[in-house]
Each structure stands twice: as C-alpha cells, then as structure tokens.
Amino acid sequence: MTLRLGDEAPNFQAETSEGSIDFHQYLGTSWGILFSHPKDYTPVCTTELGYVAKIKPEFEKRNVKVLALSVDPVDSHKGWISDINETQKTTVNYPIIADSDKKVSNLYDMIHPNASETTTVRSVFVIGPDKKVKLTLTYPASTGRNFDELLRVIDSLQLTSVYSVATPANWKDGEDTIIVPSVSDEDAKKKFPKGFRTVKPYLRYTPQPNK
C-alpha cells in the first residue's frame, strides 16, 4: 500500500515496548511521528532512538507523540533499549512497536524489496490531529535521519495549517514566511497586520504570523 500526502494514516493495533496500543487512540488529538528501523541492535538505529529520547521534550512542546517501529519482538526491544540507554546516555521514553509479523510495515509500505526483502527502510510519517499523512520521508538503511530537520518541518506544517503562508527554503521558526498566491494583496493587508513586502506579485514576505 502506497501512502500519499493527505491520505488517512491506517489505524492498527500492536504490541510495543510499553504495552498494547491502538494507533489512532494513542495519537488522540495530537500530531504524531511514526518512524521505522531495519532491526534491533543495529548501530545507526541505536543513535537515532537515543537522540529522539533526548529531544522528546521538543516534540512534546509541539504536541507531537513519538512512536518507533522495528520488526523484532518486544523482548528484543527491551534488551536493545538497555543498550541504547547505556551507549547514548539517555532513557528511551516512548514506545517501540514490535512488528515481527510485519503487519504495520506492510500497511505503511516500509519494506522495499529491492533494498531488503526482510527489513524495513528508514521511513518517517508525520500525521496530523485529523489522522491524515502530512509528510513522508524514506532514507536508506545506511543513513541516519536528521531529527532536527523533522522538528523544523513540523514547525512549518503546524504554522501553515493555521495561516495562509508557506515557508521558504531553509526556513526556521521565527523567520519571515511567504504569503500564499491565493491571498490577494487586499486580503493580505487584513490577514497580516505586521505588513508584507512584495518582491514579485507572487513572492510576498511577511513576518511569521504567530510570533
């Protein structure tokens, strides 16, 4: 199954390192990030899970719940978590799905046979409170993900879901945004009381509206 932006994120029930969950119930009214790992006790995954644990407060500030996935069973996850805590000097503080039957992996198209027939690629799904897919990323197993970039993307997604703006290349929270072309200059004067500057009729910058 190929998931595209705007599709509903499929619901599922699963065992995790923190007990049984229903995915949609777990998310509730929060945003969510679901990210997969090829298998337990692998070096790149160990650094990723440890880093996410360290920055979990940043996800919480953004009302984002974190959920990881690996195709190994719960007992394996718990042993691996001990290693992660030891080597990364942190405490894993979010659930890791045990997907030994690959039900969730297949539901979310996390197994790419030309890369590996048995393990998941490094997939990322950001899901909104409406349970719709807002972002997908796919990394090869050999490349660790940039979770600071994912925080930046979530800042943009949350901002642009409320205001009629888009974010330019390399934008960071607090920087100027771009007024979407569908908003006329007349409406822009009402919507953006901080004003805006026009570079081209289709390129108008305004200070970040929620700052």
Automatic annotation (TrEMBL):
The active site is at C45. Keywords: Antioxidant, Oxidoreductase, Peroxidase, Redox-active center. InterPro entries: AhpC/TSA, Peroxiredoxin_AhpC-typ, Peroxiredoxin_C, PRX_1cys, Thioredoxin-like_sf, Thioredoxin_domain. PROSITE patterns: THIOREDOXIN_2. Pfam families: 1-cysPrx_C, AhpC-TSA. It comes from Leptospira ilyithenensis. GO terms for molecular function: peroxiredoxin activity. Belongs to the peroxiredoxin family. Prx6 subfamily. It comes from the Bacteria. This is Peroxiredoxin. One of its GO terms (cellular component) is cytosol. The keyword tRNA-binding does not apply. Residues 3-159 form the Thioredoxin domain. GO terms for biological process: cell redox homeostasis. CDD domains: PRX_1cys.
